[in-house]
């Protein structure tokens, strides 16, 4: 007779499954992003210096990256090397002066999932919208 997993074991299993799903989703999203970057470059769409907003403020700071903004509020962008950036970052006085260093995150298939800004949707939609409008 098999023993039932403990709560901790069950939680660990659920976390492992969620992480595996996120990695699988990111692989699919990265394919879309790589196609977008190639098409943007083919069309000669120039990347622009990316700016970020400091968490909890309306302060906009320069960053160390260039790319293409996907959302109208400029909170998500694709870097020139196919990186996925969320442009709301921690920081304070130093970031206001020297700028923020961006760290890419694993790209999702749904942009701003669970976000409150009202601009949520499939990554494919945001990539296509950018290309259609530029």
């Amino acid at each position: 007779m098999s023993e039932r997993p403990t709560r901790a074991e069950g939680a660990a299993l659920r976390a492992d499954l969620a992480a595996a799903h996120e990695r699988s989703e990111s692989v699919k999203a990265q394919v879309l992003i790589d196609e977008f970057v190639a098409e943007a470059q083919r069309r000669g769409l120039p990347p622009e210096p990316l700016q970020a907003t400091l968490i909890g403020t309306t302060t906009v700071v320069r960053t160390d990256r260039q790319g293409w903004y996907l959302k109208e509020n400029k909170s998500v962008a694709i870097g020139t090397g196919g990186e996925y950036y969320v442009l709301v970052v921690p920081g304070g006085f130093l970031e206001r002066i020297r700028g923020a260093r961006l760290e890419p995150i694993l790209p999702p298939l749904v942009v701003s999932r669970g976000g409150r800004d009202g601009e949520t949707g499939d990554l494919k939609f945001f990539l296509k919208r950018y290309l259609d409008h530029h």
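Strands lie at 48-54, 60-69, 76-79, 84-86, 88-89, 110-111, 121-122. The chain has a mean pLDDT of 87.
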